[in-house]
Amino acid sequence: MKSLNDQQILLEQFKKTPIVQVACEKTGIGRSTYYRWRKDQNFKKQAEKALLHGTLLVNDLAESQLISAIKDKNITAIIFWLKNNNPRYSEKKINLSKTEILELVDSAVSTNPEYALKLLTQKLAESKIPNFFVNTLTSIIMKSTKIDQFKEKTKKNYLLNKLKWM
After folding, report:
1. pTM for this predicted structure
2. Span 24-64, pLDDT tens digits
3. In which domain, by residue range, is 36 found?
4. Count of domains in the chain?
5. How far is the C-alpha of 137 from the C-alpha of 146, rounded, in Å?
6. DSSP structural state of residue 113
7. Alpha carbon distance 80, 74 (integer Å)
8. Using CA atoms, how far apart are residues 86 and 16, in angstroms rounded to an integer?
């Protein structure tokens, strides 16, 4: 069947170019066709896996270029690396107790997103969390309210892992 072959071609392109618009243009497949195909859960999973594979590839390439720039004594690259990989240079401070973190996580996975957003706003106003963190958690909260299939424990572990890496 032609569409199955086209789907495989698009999936392979996603592994090289993890941008839907660009991959569709390169393969001659319309974006609307891609999004129609995504209604099939099997294809959707394959597409997400291929997009992740492509994203990881681009991340590797970007990190390689960043390391090359650091070796070339590019001060901007050096600062970027230190701010994002060394807590001594990071401006991304989270000044929350373990109890406050658990309260934030519990509120984020609760059925009351308004409370979670209010709590985030309060912690931001108290300068306990940086703006980027509020944006990240807000995005997670908004997405989690739309996703019924995740169990509360899964979401909680995901958020705790997110906090661990920030």
Report:
1. 0.53
2. 999 999 999 999 999 999 999 999 999 999 999 998 999 99
3. 2-61
4. 2
5. 14
6. H
7. 10
8. 30
- Cα–Cα nearest to 89, from 97, 101, 103, 78: 78
- If you average pLDDT over each of 48-62, 104-118, 124-138, 148-162, which comes out highest? 48-62
Which pair of tokens denotes residue 164?
A: 């661990």
- Structural domain ending residue among the three candidates 61, 77, 106: 61
Q: How many whole angstroms separate alpha carbon 166 and alpha carbon 163?
A: 5
Tell me if 91 sits within 8 A of 130, measured CB to CB. yes
Distance CA 85, CA 93 (A): 13
Q: What are the backbone dihedrals phi and psi of residue 164, each rounded to the nearest 5 degrees, phi first?
A: -65, -35
Same domain, 159 and 110: yes
Q: Count the helix, strand and coil residues of the chain and give each as a percent rounded to the nearest 5.
A: 75, 0, 25
**Own/partner long-range contacts of 129-138 (Cβ < 8 Å, ≥24 apart):** 129/94, 129/95, 129/96, 130/91, 130/92, 130/93, 130/94, 132/92, 133/92, 133/94, 133/166, 136/162, 136/166, 137/104, 137/108, 137/162
